[in-house]
């Protein structure tokens, strides 16, 4: 923004107020910094053609190129700097210096980190490593499907070593899984490093979860199917709807008991998602069934943002995260999404996140573009006398920091 801001107090709050990043992922280790195509910073597309070819022709990429050129000091005439120029420059930088530059420009003080992203164990940095770039302590968001898969693998390995004795009675493996999964979630809930839980059921079987009747239902045959697949492939992937729904139901129950928010991936994602089942509207029955559990709808639920806004307006236990669309969506699209968020959502129930992952630039772009979009949308409304500048500043302070600090009990 080269022109003088019309509402200086609002502009200052939007661009400089400290932020809590309420949903992000680990960065790549230095030794793995070139393991993935950098185009992933501006696109969720999969495959070389869509990601490394098509993604660079999006408005999101054109905009990110200019913003990163300014960040890296690649000249005043940013229009002469290409995406490849940006890549070559950042590839030559010392890795920790690169991370410091990006976080220094992001204004993030605390990160809530989902460390269950595929590939983190092989390529990602640990939770505490990230503390060097932020003022506060990085907290963990526990991805519950991954915890369930770890427990299954532990049980299956024990059973294979014991020649299948857990399957001698129909309920043996099931009872062990139920007890261990509940125990694992409770351990996480009392861990001071854990801020909340997260479900990726949207990816696995869709958001149309059925949360009734799970204590009485028997799952041993379904577990046995997962067991046989593990014997054949060596991998455990929880992608069976009754089992996935059970994992969500138990999570919602324990989260209510320990007052931990549960984040749900909704809407925007890669091509592994069934988009028809990615609308948060599918969660309505679960929201009603667990009124004491806090639901956080991630990623603006894009393109189902209005459905998400409706849920925040009518259910006191629903909050909306407006993240990931920065920087994957164009500037016009981002402003439209913020407007849709504000159509119905109470402004004390919206929170920002970067969905930063792998590359430090994803944190920087996620912060800068969200701040710019908030300012532009709210300044329009102040200009139309629909709210005061002081009210608009309050909205920004809540969205960037205060609401997340309260919801995740970060000041306690």
Automatic annotation (TrEMBL):
It comes from the Eukaryota. Residues 250-408 form the Amidohydrolase-related domain. One of its GO terms (molecular function) is hydrolase activity. This is Amidohydrolase-related domain-containing protein. It comes from Hebeloma cylindrosporum.
